[in-house]
Amino acid sequence: MGRLEGRCAVVTGAGNGIGRGVAIRLAAEGARVAAMDIDADGLAVTASEIGSACMPIEVDVANDDSLKRAASEVESTFGALHVLHANAGISRRGLASDCPREAWDAVLAVNLTGTYRTIQTFFPIMRDSDGHRAMIATASVQALRGSAWTVAYDASKAGVTGMVRACAHEFAAYGITVNAIAPGPIDTQMLGVGDSEARRTRLAERVPLRRLGEPENIAGAVMFFATSDSAFVTGHVMPVDGGLIMNAPGTAYRTPEERGK
Ligand SMILES: NC(=O)c1ccc[n+]([C@@H]2O[C@H](COP(=O)([O-])OP(=O)(O)OC[C@H]3O[C@@H](n4cnc5c(N)ncnc54)[C@H](O)[C@@H]3O)[C@@H](O)[C@H]2O)c1
User: Fold this and answer.
1) Distance, CA 216 to ligand 1 centroid (Å)?
2) What architecture (CATH level 2) is domain 8-244?
3) Strands of the 32-37 sheet, one edge to the other
4) Which of ligand 1's atoms lies nearest the C-alpha of 218?
5) From the CB of 188, is ligand 1 less than 6 Å away?
6) Is the CB of 190 under 6 A from ligand 1?
7) What is the pLDDT of residues 88-141, one digit of tens each?
8) pTM for this structure?
């Protein structure tokens, strides 16, 4: 029997990549999963991989009405909510010196405001549910280290970490934990490595564990927060990054042996 038998979950950005991997894992552990995404085709693939435990809902997290409709559907169908993974996100490249206003606004609208509004919209259902309840937001190691090319993205993810701490303080009164996961490079369409083995190798060289992460690695961290194993953990930002955060931005990681050469 799975550890989430009888539990109900919402995962946003579940039409691809990390969100799909998380939705599949939560369902495999016994949860009923409302899988949400703006991408209807991606959502259909996730739903078919999961089967009857999945309730796919087309949602734009940057749109309050869309989120409200999704929350009513979750309330009327599940009647409870125990795990919320606010994970939908986008990325636009742009240097701090010339990042276009449109790119800044779009990234902040989805990654920061969308994540916040997701948490705010689903909070009442979670507050009125029983047992271990956890909100998990997807931040990024970029929130903790930054890079020249992704000023809007880095700012949005740093915003998520601050927002998560504020929510953790407030929702502790209801027994709800709120944490963020900060993924390192995970091999999804967002990372954009595609078929380029050269790029994959170059990125992997920066990671002490010498590989890119997979959505399943993030799903493992979500499982920790989703179960009472993490009952006394709130307000944290957990890097799941193969050790990338220990390494200076842009440089290849060298093992002690390589450094000695
Ligand atoms: N892949 C990485 O290396 C990496 C690293 C750090 C953080 N992240 C974060 O992980 C999360 C998932 O990213 P991923 O790598 O799986 O990318 P992805 O592009 O595969 O998945 C993101 C999903 O979010 C959905 N989405 C985008 N805008 C939306 C909106 N307005 N409403 C609803 N859904 C929307 C997309 O349709 C997509 O299905 C994002 O928040 C991303 O910033 C990814």
Assistant:
1) 14
2) 3-Layer(aba) Sandwich (3.40)
3) 54-58, 32-37, 8-12, 83-86, 133-138, 176-183, 237-240
4) 10
5) yes
6) yes
7) 999 999 899 999 999 999 999 999 999 999 999 999 999 999 999 999 999 999
8) 0.97
